[in-house]
Amino acid sequence: MTKVSCDEYLSARIRELFGNDSRVSSRRGLGGGCINNAEEYALSGGEKLFVKRNRSSHSGLFAAEAAGLEALAVSGGPRVPGVLGFHDDGTDQILILEFISPGVKGRDFWELFGRQMAILHRAGTDKGFGFDGDNHIGATEQRNGWMPDWLEFFARRRIGFQLELAISRGRMDTGTAGECEKFMSRIPEILIEPEMPSLLHGDLWGGNYMIGDRGEPVLIDPAVYYGHREADLAMTELFGGFKPSFYSAYNEAYPLKSGYRRRRDAYNLYHMLNHLNLFGASYLGSVQAILRRYT
Ligand code: ADP
């Protein structure tokens, strides 16, 4: 059997979606992505596509991203680009998405975003905490599967996994690793079980939403799983940029439990460990600062 290359797959998908005469009339590189090569494809019939390619060895990367985007497409939640196809030819991987024409923020952008995130977080599952299959957060693997206990899931699959990675990559001294282990063992005292497993974007910072053509929020580039909604909210505060009206609208629609502020940085330890693993020692100080707050 001959392998279908990513380019052949893309041409076939274009013909299926837009008719046999449809051709690519131009391609334009899009900046902003940290990991993949992202492009806008304009077609002969005037349609546009968003196409992401990856040449790394992360096989299954885009199948997992597609599954995440499809899970996020909850009625009443933030808009999510439709998945039009994905393919892995053994060398290249490709993800084809509905093209989001960038707009300018509508006047109620942040209120709408807050209300829509509350709706997303009310989408639950009876499977427990996790997701079907692993995915990625940035270029790092994110381990999922399902566990019945949130605190154990967060300790083992989130903090524990990143800690092991940091040790194996030589990013962490033994003293900090010891503090991190102490933090893990104290998670049941630091964090609380949620009211339900919430559907999470998983990597909700300012680079992972877009503004759609009607001025509305659009979620992109997720690291989806079911977990405590405080984890998503915490990340919005890590690098900032989300306006107060986002939080007030969210809280009105789905109030956070008291003590969230004390728990917030514990959730962000996951992202700081991931940054340490991805970008190196400049993040060690941030990791240590969070650990000092809790141990
Ligand atoms: P990466 O996985 O490399 O981080 P992203 O998914 O963040 O890539 O996409 C890179 C950039 O492409 C984004 O910052 C955004 O500006 C743009 N983009 C992402 N998804 C779409 C889309 N569906 N339509 C149009 N532009 C998009």
What does this structure look like?
Pfam families: Fructosamin_kin. One of its GO terms (molecular function) is kinase activity. This is Fructosamine kinase. Keywords: Kinase, Transferase. With 295 residues, the chain is α+β, with helices and mostly antiparallel strands. The chain folds into two domains: 6-98, Phosphorylase Kinase, domain 1 (2-Layer Sandwich); 108-292, Aminoglycoside phosphotransferase (APH), C-terminal lobe (Aminoglycoside 3'-phosphotransferase, Chain: A, domain 2, Alpha-Beta Complex), CATH 3.90.1200. 42% of the residues lie in helices and 19% in strands. It contains nine helices and 13 strands. It has helices at residues 6-18, 61-72, 109-121, 150-168, 174-190, 229-238, 244-253, 260-279, 284-294, and strands at 24-30, 37-43, 48-54, 83-88, 93-98, 129-131, 135-137, 140-142, 145-147, 198-200, 209-211, 217-219, 225-227. The strands form five sheets. Strands 1-2-3-5-4 form a five-stranded antiparallel beta sheet, with helices on both faces. A two-stranded antiparallel sheet has the order 6-9. The longest helix is centred in the C-terminal third of the chain and has 20 residues, at 260-279. The radius of gyration is 20 Å and the shape is globular. The model has no long low-confidence stretch (mean pLDDT 95). Bound molecules: adenosine-5'-diphosphate (ADP). The site of adenosine-5'-diphosphate has 16 residues, from strand 5.
